[in-house]
Amino acid sequence: MGSTPPGTTDIAMSLSVHDAIAERIESLPADLHEILLTIAVAGTGCRASVLSHVHGISRLRAATLADELAERRLVQEEDGIYRCAHPVIARVVRDGLTTSRRRELHRAIAVTLEHLAAEGGAAPPGEIARHAELGGERAMAYRQALKASEAARQRYAHEEALTWLDLAAATAAPGGESDAVNRLTAEVLGVAGWREVPPSVRRPEPAQREIERQDLDLPVHL
């Protein structure tokens, strides 16, 4: 009898879990499905106020729908923030989206967060910048990345400040914006006492990590 090739069991398990979750998602009512899409694309989670703005519904309705998803164990709520109950769930939801749909959701989240921030809401500029970049909103990504860098600089988090400046550089328009990023980068390096950008500085990665082996250890109720 032939032996099972290494990794075959893991692959089969992955496909089985993926298919089971995908089937549950596809069977959701349309309003619940739309809310789940936004929560999954948000990555780090979102409040009812964000869901309300993105979907054009009341905050109470947004919270009610998100709570229904929590009852179905697809979402979890903590301190008013809704997140997918497991990374695999978020990944399966995002896998079902077209590139255009995902980009538009990132854009809608970025616009909403910036609007809420202008009204005094808790919307970190780095989070806005990340969604703006993924949503194709270059100017917003640049603007918010600079704000995130300055906030990090005020905390003396120099590597973080440089990371956000790297994102700003990637979204800067040629000329004045690029020159501003170069000047700010030189300032941060000078304050930190560094001659060049440390190798550890990397651009912020979307909070949408790949499935890892431990992600397959799902609760039995999934």
What's the arrangement of secondary structure elements?
Elements: H1 8-26, H2 30-42, E1 46-47, H3 48-55, H4 59-71, E2 75-78, E3 81-84, H5 87-95, H6 99-118, H7 125-134, H8 138-154, H9 158-171, H10 176-192
Antiparallel strand pairs: 1-3, 2-3
Keywords:
single chain; about 220 residues; mainly alpha; Arc Repressor Mutant, subunit A; 2 domains; 3-stranded antiparallel β-sheet; 10 helices; elongated; disordered C terminus
Secondary structure tally: strands: 3
| Total of helices | 10
Tally of separate domains:
2
Distance between the termini: 34 Å
The backbone outline, from C-alpha atoms, is elongated
Whole-number average pLDDT?
86
How do the strands line up in the largest sheet? 1-3-2
- The oligomeric status of these chains comes to single chain
SSE string, helices as H and strands as E: HHEHHEEHHHHHH
Largest sheet: 3 strands, antiparallel
Which structural category do the helix and sheet elements fall into? mainly alpha
Give the % helix.
Answer: 55-70%
Write down the Rg: 20 Å
